[in-house]
Write a structure and sequence with these properties.
alpha+beta; Aminopeptidase; Alpha-Beta Plaits; four-stranded antiparallel sheet; elongated
Length: about 450
């Protein structure tokens, strides 16, 4: 997989140091997980402030001398959530690494679905359960633990520059991200950008994420009448709006479950495959369910568009009556293959919908948001360095993977710092269940991720 060689002479000492400090790093991670830092306006935003202060404290403990809590204004005078930025200047002639993670988390959801307390990190065997244990407070601790180990092992020979950037609103859509980059462009400038917010191939097998699907979302509304009417008096000639909407939504997939929107592209076939039995186990799909789409599983997950209905406004069953609804609305999310332009995808989707037979109903298409896909240069020096460091830490070859999910701010990084090499790493695995109940972190891979990042930075010092 790797075609370049690197000096990893300090690998053994760094591995030993990480081993010795690992229990202490776990204790720090537990302290972070205990803060319910959900950055949604309907939650207690003071917890996000608490979380930023805790990250600032941990960064100072790790050896950073300059640690700030920063914000940026966006939109109509709105203020973004607090981000933590710490800096260690590079010695003359040495590169700078920007280490990114985020300290906000998803809501816990229904507590009845959790087998442990969501905001109390609980170890069960080799996994640590709790909201944010993996996404993405473990990413924060990978950065801080690696820096701590580098100071302890290399001392004054720790020459590379390190800028820590811990965002506070990623799970809320990073609304102030571009404004933040614009405001602090010089402060965040780097040669390498390490984003610790992705996943490994599986337990015990490391991965570097080299491709990300993009994403668009849109609201589709249909109206069939000026007002609701009695279904017994007018039903038959007049179809209700939810029925028309369902017919419209059904046109978005073909008979095999592939997205049927003309103009959307497919990226090249991935080189690695996802075992069908593993996918069924990891996804929790019912045994009776057939897998949708065509091509390899990795192609369907990483290189092809995927469309989901993620919300719908119709009358709830508990308050339903014999009434023909005049209007209905649905929100869809469309994942885009690397190489697809989101603006074009919106046009293709709207054109497809307008071409369907919906019995003369009024159709409204409203674009909600979009995020660019990403494709890394696998043969670039940065990607080769990351792959080699992962292989050194795990003792086996790392996998270059795509990712079905999207990280829209990667495109913002690329636009702001076109010369920087972006390296997407992470600590999740197929059983992490990020965003779901019973989120967990596989601890052996967490430890190796710390080692890999320390080795990578040491190789450039």
């Amino acid at each position: 997989m790797t075609s370049l060689s690197f000096n990893f002479s300090s690998a053994d000492r760094l591995t030993q140091q990480v081993e010795e400090q690992f229990d202490a790093e776990l204790a720090r991670l537990r302290d972070l997980v205990a803060i319910p830092s959900v950055a949604w306006e309907s939650f207690d935003l003071s917890q996000v402030e608490r979380s930023a202060l805790k990250v600032q404290e941990l960064a100072l403990e790790a050896g950073f001398e300059q640690v700030e809590i920063l914000r940026a204004s966006y939109g109509q005078g709105k203020e973004g959530m607090p981000a933590v930025v710490a800096q260690k200047p590079a010695a003359e002639g040495y590169p700078t690494f920007l280490l990114y993670a985020h300290h906000d988390v998803q809501p816990a959801g229904d507590p009845a679905l959790w087998e442990t307390e969501p905001f109390e990190a609980t170890r069960v065997g080799d996994r640590l359960f709790g909201r944010g244990t993996a996404d993405d407070k473990a990413g924060i601790m990978v950065h801080l633990a690696a820096v701590r180990a580098l100071w302890q092992v290399l001392g004054e020979d720790f020459k590379v520059g390190v800028t820590l950037f811990i965002e506070g609103e990623e799970e809320a859509g990073s609304p102030s991200f571009e404004a933040f980059l614009e405001t602090y462009r010089q402060k965040l400038a780097a040669d390498y950008i390490v984003v610790a917010d992705s996943a490994n191939w599986k337990e015990g097998v490391p991965a570097l994420t080299t491709g990300l699907r993009g994403v668009i979302s849109a609201d589709i509304s249909v109206r069939v009448a000026s007002h609701a009417v009695h279904s017994g008096m007018f039903g038959g000639p007049l179809l209700d709006a939810p029925t028309v909407l369902v017919q419209l939504l059904a046109s978005l997939h073909d008979s095999q479950g592939s997205v049927a929107v003309e103009g959307l592209i497919h990226a090249p076939e991935p080189e690695v495959e996802y075992n069908t039995e593993d996918f069924r186990r990891d996804s929790g799909i019912l045994p009776s369910m057939k897998l949708a789409g065509r091509g390899s599983l990795t192609s369907r997950l990483w290189a092809q568009p995927a469309l989901s209905l993620i919300g719908m406004d119709i009358t709830p069953v508990d308050s339903s009556s014999n009434t023909i609804a005049a209007s209905a609305r649905a929100r869809i999310s469309l994942r885009l293959a690397p190489g697809q332009d989101p603006a074009q995808a919106h046009l293709f989707l709207e054109k497809h919908l307008e071409a369907q037979n919906i019995h003369g109903a009024q159709l409204t298409y409203q674009a909600i948001d979009s995020g660019q896909p990403y494709q890394a240069e696998l043969e670039g020096e940065g990607a080769q360095l990351a792959l080699a460091a992962l292989e050194e830490a795990w003792g086996l070859e790392a996998v270059a993977t795509g990712m079905g999910g999207s990280i829209p701010f990667i495109a913002s990084f690329k636009e702001a710092y076109p010369q920087a090499q972006i390296l997407i790493t992470g600590v999740e695995d197929p059983d992490t269940r990020a965003h779901s109940a019973n989120e967990s972190l596989y601890l052996p891979d967490f430890k190796k991720a710390i080692v890999a990042e320390a080795i990578m930075l040491a190789a450039k010092s």
